[in-house]
Each structure stands twice: as C-alpha cells, then as structure tokens.
Predict the 3D structure of the following.
Amino acid sequence: QRIEREIQVLASDEQGFHFEHPMLRDLLYNEIPAALSREYHLMIAQEMKERYNGDYGPAIGEAAQHFRRGGDHERASPLLYQAGERAFGLKAYREAGILFMDFLDSEDRCGKPYLSHSARSYLYAQLGNCHEESGRWQESIEAYNKLLEITQESDDFSGQVNARSEERRVGKEG
C-alpha cells in the first residue's frame, strides 16, 4: 500500500491490484531477482485461491499463470488446462494457444501427466486449431504432427487420418 500511495505504480479496484502501466510492470519484473519474483507470484496465487475459494471463474487464467510463474507447476497444470479450455470455448484462440502451451510446459516440469491419452490427442487438435486461427501455420503443423504421433502410439487409425488431413490442409493454406 505504501508503494501504491507514494509511487502510484499499482492501482486497486474491486478485482484486486494491477499495474498502472504495462511498462512499469516490465521495468519492475526486470529489476526484481527471479527468486523474489517467484515468491510474489506464489503469494498472489495463494491470495487468489483464498479469495475465490478455488472457483476462479474468469480469473482462472490469471491464477494459473501466477502459480506457473511461482514455480508451482503441479497446481498450475490443471488450472492452465481449464483456462485454455475456457478460452477455446470463447473462441479466444490466441489466448487458448498460449495457455495450452504453458500447460504442456508445466505438466512436463512437474513430471506428472494430467491428461489421459485421448484427452491429450484432443488437446493437440485444439492447439493446432488455435495456432491456425492465429495465423501461426508452422506451429499449427507441429501440433498436428504431435497429434499424429500420439494417435500412432495408440493405434488410433481414425485419429491418424484426421491428423494427416489437418496437417496437409494447413500446409497448403499456409
């Protein structure tokens, strides 16, 4: 609160605190040691968890990112996935793609698979769609290639046909 009063870096409203300007946020992020930054993110994530009682609603992506940036990938993973699903459902494809990629990174870092094999296939199909809708053709092809890998591992012939056709279609459009 002292920082808010004296420097006016932060603003508060009924939803919580936010930086007055993105440049101020970037400046502070660059000056704060990584360990302290992680600690702050975890503190914010815990505060959000208590405030929302685990039911984050539209703030789920923000909470997930605080857990992720705080290094708590085990808590971040399911929230990132749910936030990605929410964004995808709202047709916010760029945001969904970012959240899905962050989910895959966090899941990898915590070493525990969160998704079943079929859910993972669906995730890569969604991710390919997100990248495609965002005009990121190469990333879309890579997601469809990963989908193809997963469907080959599980001998899912129809999934393989779908992955190959999506990959070829995007390759021709991009």
User: Anything to note?
Assistant: The first helix runs from residue 2 to 6.
